[in-house]
Please model this.
Amino acid sequence: MEWLAGMRMTAERLNDNTADEETTAGLTVATGWSLNGFQGRKVNGITTVYVSLNRTGATVTTTSAGALSAGPQLVCTLPIGWRPPDTIIENFDKSGTADGGVSILATGTCTIQSMSPTASITLNQDITFFSQWISEND
Amino acid sequence: MRKRAGMRISADMMNDNSIDEQTSSGLQLEDDFSFMSFRGEKVNGVTSLSITLEYVGSNVTATADGNIGDVIVGFLPEGWWPPEQITSYFGKSDDSDGSFTVQTTGRILLKTMNNNATLSSGQLVFLAVMWISENN
Model:
């Protein structure tokens, strides 16, 4: 909850941690993916984002050591105001059957870069990830 | 921003979530890791760490089950240790991933990696983790 000039300070208000800002809009999805869901929240200088995407393109495959066969692949870009200050590597879930790594850059780009060895993302399968960071007043 | 005695309370101050404390130094590394960047931040009782390292040791190859034993990375500076052991997730040079543990003594260990993947000299390791640190 944002404080406004003239507000009366109460214990209830001081203990209040409701979201300062929320969004479900503005995520740019890369070719070969469609949006299942996007949720961003901010409270007390912390930002969280939840992203779920559905594969609409060709199958993504991995090597026997877990690298993506075609190299890292951009999946989406977070909207301005919902980007981390520094690179974050997060874990993603692939339709509940495999996991992998996604890098989230300060530019907002989200790029999958590894997955369970020999796993693949086929048409209509989902990837889901969640991330959080200190965003200060951003 | 930490509130200080004598500060005047205002709406702007109450809404301020700028960093209470930050560091980029004090990380102690084992010989097999070379420092690239370290960023520690605290705000409103939450601590966040972001670390990028270059591996400079001999090859570490995960078993078919993804085990790499315990690869000791180093120690976080005092004041930046979690209240309980935390397991998080690391990325390796855009081609693999694994898990790492931060102990309450600040010791960082790589624990697992993608089955059959190899961590070799010159590759980068990215680690990020957050926890509730209260007033510490």
The mean pLDDT of chain B is 94. Residues 11-15 of chain B form the longest helix (5 residues). The first strand of chain B starts at residue 21 and ends at 23.
